[in-house]
Amino acid sequence: MKEKLTVAIIGCGNFAVNFVDLFKAHPYTEKVYVCDLIHERAKAYSEKFDVEIIPTFEDALADKSINCIANFTQRHLHGDIVIRALKAGKHVYSAVPMAPTVEECKEIVRLVETSGLTYLMGETCYYYPCAMFCREAYAKGLFGEFSYGASQYYHHIDSISYGLRPEERGMPPLLYPTHSTAMILSAVNSYAKRVTCFGCKDKSGDAAFTPEGNQWGNEYLNQYVLMELANGGTARVTEARGLGWCKPSSYISSLYGTKGGYEFSNAQHILVEKDFTVDRTKDKVKLTDVSDYVNPYDMVENKNLSDFKERVANGEWQYYSTAAVQEKEYARLPKEYEAIDNGHMGTHKFLIDDFCKAAYLGQMPTLNAWFAARVNIPGLMAIESARLGGVPLEVPDLGEAPER
Q1: What does pLDDT average to over the chain?
Q2: Which of 31, 70, 307, 335 has its CA at a distance of 20 to 30 angstroms from the CA of residue 171?
């Protein structure tokens, strides 16, 4: 008989609050604990969600009845937390990013491979409608051979959660690259072989973005990396923390191949296909507006409002609502999820369902350690490239996940 999951949620901040009910309601979960260094936070979670508190992370690791750790700690701590949990024999769900160093990414992969434990990195943007559409179209061959694509995460430092914490504020943008890399790399089913990166230094006088103002010696508020992919194409990723732009924050803006392409701006999604039914000496394409398929339902319902585009640019309708392109994924979710709020373009339910099923059934999740390494390590190498003035650097590749 398979063992049901007992989950210890580590870190009771403003993000984990979206996931406690999803862990609790999953049919493969037996029990959920919460844990935070600040006891008042754990107590608030305990009362809000009717769950027990486990006092410390160390207590959770030592408790043999707990077989899963859900890591929602600060981003630069993820490598250490995950490695300790895997060494203690726990399955691990972790918020992004995977780890702040290449060495820690490699160690996580090694531990998962040798132990057979489940690790899943909860990258919301893998299930973003634009990423799902581009994967779908690329798999159908609509783009032909991939040539070039671009993805980005625009989120001003003053409106992002870690921007309020002094110990994280000056973090290099590409230490947290997966909202961008997971979309574009999964869309074309490839990985980065080499990167070159430049950045825009902070000009506001913010002491956090100075070599002495943060633990990484980082000066860059925005970073831009060009990646040479294994499939022969090129991708551009932007991680920006200082642009005067609100939403949409995470998206694929373009993807081009030999037969077609995709372009997005604010609320419009366009599929362009080369029309081979006409004289090949003439420039002729077929253009399809797929916005109603890719945009969230709430956005589609309000598209005729006079201030529609401005409201989209300010993030309305983009958190809880889902899109038509996501419907086939929703069909596999447990019925227990129907009455629970979703989040991040309707992606939270997919992530927790993926993890619980993989850990309970002993399967390899899609967002596994090998995938996580392929979307994290390019960002870490790009940080070093920028530090060296844009020198091209090879990206270590840890390969594909083994069959399980």
Answers
A1: 96
A2: 70
Question: pLDDT of 215-268, one tens digit each?
Answer: 999 999 999 999 999 999 999 999 999 998 888 899 999 999 999 999 999 999
CA separation for the pair 101, 185 (Å, rounded)? 20
Task: Residue 291: give its domain's CATH number.
Answer: 3.30.360.10
Half-sphere exposure of 239 (CA within 13 A, CB side): 28
- 156 vs 257: CA distance, rounded Å: 31
Go through 330-343 and write b for each residue having 16 or more CB atoms within 10 A of its CB, e for each that does not. eeebbeebeeeebb
Characterize the bridge pairing of strands 119-121 and 220-229: unpaired
Does residue 276 form part of some domain? yes
Share of the chain above pLDDT 70, in %: 98
**By the 8 A CB rule, do 142 and 259 touch?**
yes
Distance from chain centroid for Cα 83: 20
CA-closest candidate to residue 74, choices 95, 101, 45, 43: 95
**Inside any domain, residue 315:** yes
Angle at CA 221, nearest 5°, toward 174 and 14?
70
What are the tokens at 283?
């420039």
Of 317, 322, 357, the residue nearest 338 (C-alpha): 322
Query: Is residue 108 pLDDT above 90, yes or no?
Result: yes
User: Each residue of 284-310: pLDDT tens digit?
Assistant: 889 999 999 999 999 999 999 999 999
Nearest to 120 by CA among 75, 77, 68: 68
Give domain status of residue 76, yes or no. Answer: no
**pLDDT tens digits for range 71-96:** 999 999 999 999 999 999 999 999 99
Range of the domain at 274: 126-327
pLDDT-based confidence at residue 272 (cuts at 50, 70, 90): very high
In a domain, 43, yes or no: no
Asked if 20 contacts 53 with a C-beta cutoff of 8 angstroms, the reply is no
